[in-house]
Amino acid sequence: xNTLEIRQQIQEYVDKLSxxxxxxxxxxxxxxxxxxxxxxxxxxxxxxxxxxxxxxxKKNVEEGKVISVERLKRKY
Length: 76
Description:
- The chain is mainly α.
- The chain contains 4 helices and no strands.
- It has helices at 3-16, 19-45, 50-62, 69-75.
- It is elongated and about 55 Å long.
């Protein structure tokens, strides 16, 4: 089952739910989305020196020390 088919199946189930069950479903989906975000964050934080590198990258952006995507595309 591909992603589109899964989304269609979910929509069919959602259409059949009562308002009370919709609240349960939305809470559950919010929980899953939050877990996915947390898992991704935990994975990034496991990378050696990630916090320092990220802080440096943010500083570079703030100071305008960046290269545009268009310029990179032309170069490569």
